[in-house]
Design goal:
Strand content: 35-45%
Order of helices and strands: HHEEEEEEEEEEEEEEE
Largest sheet: 8 strands, mixed
Distance between the termini: 46 Å
Strand order of the largest sheet: 1-4-7-3-9-11-15-13
Number of strands: 15
Length: about 180
């Protein structure tokens, strides 16, 4: 084998190794911290290191450039834990989350969620939910529960969601968003 072929072979092997390394690194750093669907409103509190807070009388949640995981409980208030305590506030029955990573436990009442440029995970919703999403990645962990979906979409992609007869309605108004079933 000539010297130039050996050089190209070595360069090719190094290139393939770097490509595999970069791809693996991207996957590792972009995947979820843990499988959110294996937890519920009771045991998620033990999995997170953030301090949990309680708020009452919230009807709407606004999310901006954040990653939020929602669970449901039978309690009448919202419990939440966020990575950055300074990036959320409550104004006139609206819970605002901005540039943070949060876990939120919702009560058994219909909630309205507006989100922009965010990543949202709904883990086994137990109550109706209205979502208005723009440039959002939404993952729904159905956990073998049937859901009825009504979807209005503009330049959006909805994958693997089948609407079934259910008492829980998930209304989606999507703009440039992606919705799919949650996978770890």
């Amino acid at each position: 084998m000539s010297k130039s072929k050996k050089v190209f072979l070595v360069i090719g092997i190094i290139f393939i190794f770097l490509l595999v390394f970069i791809t693996s690194s991207i996957y590792f750093f972009t995947k979820d911290l843990f499988d959110y669907s294996k937890y519920n409103a009771v045991n998620i509190k033990t999995k997170t290191d953030y301090s949990w807070k309680t708020v009452n009388y919230i009807d709407n949640i606004n999310i901006n450039q954040s990653k939020v995981v929602f669970y449901w409980s039978d309690e009448n208030n919202i419990k939440y834990a966020c990575e950055k305590d300074s990036n959320h506030n409550i104004n006139e029955k609206v819970f605002n989350i901005k540039q943070s990573h949060c876990y939120v436990i919702l009560p058994r009442k219909t909630m309205n969620i507006n989100a922009y440029q965010s990543s949202i995970n709904l883990i086994a919703p137990k109550e109706n939910i209205n979502l208005v999403l723009e440039q959002v990645s939404l993952n729904i962990a159905q956990n073998n529960n049937p859901y009825k979906y009504t979807i209005i979409k503009k330049e959006s992609n909805v994958e693997d969601l089948i609407s079934k007869d259910s008492s829980v309605l998930i209304k989606l108004n999507l703009t440039q968003s992606q919705v799919k079933e949650y996978e770890y």
